[in-house]
Design a protein that fits this description.
Two copies of one chain form a homodimer. The first copy, chain A, is of the alpha/beta class. Helix content of chain A is about 25%, strand content about 20%. Chain A folds into two domains: about 110 residues, Cobalt-precorrin-4 Transmethylase, domain 1; about 120 residues, 2-Layer Sandwich (Methyltransferase, Cobalt-precorrin-4 Transmethylase, Domain 2). Chain A has seven helices and ten strands. In chain A, the strands form two sheets. The first copy, chain A, has a five-stranded parallel sheet, sandwiched between helices. A five-stranded mixed sheet of chain A has the order 6-7-10-8-9. In chain A, a hairpin with a 7-residue loop joins strand 8 and strand 9. In chain A, helix 3 crosses helix 4. The radius of gyration of chain A is 19 Å and the shape is elongated. In chain A, about 50% of the residues are buried.
């Protein structure tokens, strides 16, 4: 089990898995902010923007452990080693992940490594991008009449060599489906959603850089999805009746 | 569309639909805290704890618009009127909902009323209870091998006179199912989950008051779920392979 400190300053020798929220610096939690301000070492993913990293205190060493953007690739094992070495050197370590740290972020492997090494840790939840997207669009993600469920999935596998479908079997039609990292292959994705039984007029909205000044979105119905061109990453694709106002509204265009 | 202010103080005449997070005062976002500190009127649900309301500034009038706890019932329409009257009296209004304001909270009706009345509004996302529960348990809610999806649903209908099942059709087995307000009828719920095709040994964990000092949990396998007695509301039921460590661990008891 993680520790449950109620103190707000980072404790030397501890690792904090912290959600950085969707991008805007003031959408961090107060707890996350206090830890960033007081920690010795920040290990962050690529998707965490500079404006958030700027909240770290002057004492903090800030290290990108992102695996993209042309930098020398760091392995998952390498991230584990940096966390554990930092804690064993009696530094307080913030492992900063965009959104919430437990959602689509390989946190399980990092937690297992910390447990294995007997390094005390704490998890600080965050605002996930889907909620920021709903807030930005002004649309509830659930609705008593048309969207009684939320389904978070990832399209990440769509770019791998042996791709698994995003969804196997029927997709509930009374749900808002939120696809993290949907990839660029909208034709394939549209086919999977149709194969899952979603009607061709199901509204879809791709939002890019939710909750940041660069935020933009495009929307269409499912039968047009293969022609949709989302904006640059990070992108979320929202699918379901709750997105109906995006089709009628000013966002009805196919390119970001 | 909502407004997108980047200022942190509440603007007179505006309504802010704000997520209060899962309960701990420092799990509010920084933006939510600034709005609470500066607003004139707070309209809050019952589930928002006193420790969070205590963050409001001394100028703020604080009004419970909860619909339970033996108080005279306020209608949904009554909540709309309080928001609109407050804004028209040039007060800044924070409509404070536990967790995220767009998830299972009838936000759609409140947003429609504000749009109808031409009252400017902004939505501030929050940390939902599910993420606080995962953080408290130290368990990732998704996992690359066993839990590629998250499904948020509500068991709220289970207590109504004409109850709809929580889930119709097959429940994906590679998902973590998170049930908000699961109710007390575990026998019925267990039957629905079995009818959805979940194996009898699927791990289940009911967590009560996640992310607060009163937090407690009980866990079991699906074939024992009818005997599970969750703690007091608010309760979340988490179901799926990602909860496996809760069965092996110290939380393996059937009563909170």
């Amino acid at each position: 089990m993680p520790t449950h400190s109620t103190q707000t300053a980072a404790t030397p020798g501890n690792v904090y898995l912290v959600g950085a929220g969707p991008g805007a610096p003031d959408l961090l939690t107060v707890r996350a902010l206090r830890l960033l301000e007081s920690c010795d070492l920040v290990l962050h993913d690529d998707l965490v923007p500079d404006e958030v990293l700027a909240l770290a205190g002057p004492q903090a060493e800030i290290v990108s452990v992102g695996k993209r953007c042309g930098k020398p690739r760091i392995t998952q094992q390498g991230i584990h080693e940096l966390m554990i070495e930092g804690a064993r050197a009696n530094r307080s370590v913030v492992r900063l992940k965009s959104g919430d740290p437990l959602v689509f972020g390989r946190a399980g492997e990092e937690l297992a490594a910390l447990r294995e090494a007997s390094v005390p840790f704490e998890i600080v939840p965050g605002v996930t991008a889907a909620f920021a997207a709903g807030a930005a669009l002004g649309l509830p993600l659930t609705d008593r009449t048309s969207a009684s469920k939320l389904i978070f999935a990832t399209g990440h596998h769509a770019s791998s060599k042996d791709p698994a479908p995003v969804f196997e079997g029927a997709i509930p039609q009374d749900a808002t489906l939120i696809l993290y990292m949907p990839g660029r292959d909208m034709e394939r994705l549209a086919q999977e959603l149709r194969d899952g039984g979603l009607p061709p007029d199901t509204p879809c909205c791709a939002i890019s850089h939710a909750a940041t000044p660069e935020q933009n979105y495009v929307s269409c119905r499912l039968h047009e999805l293969e022609h949709l061109t989302p904006g640059t990453a990070p992108v979320l694709l929202l699918v379901g009746r709750a997105m109906e106002p995006m089709i009628a509204g000013p966002g009805n265009s196919l390119e970001a």
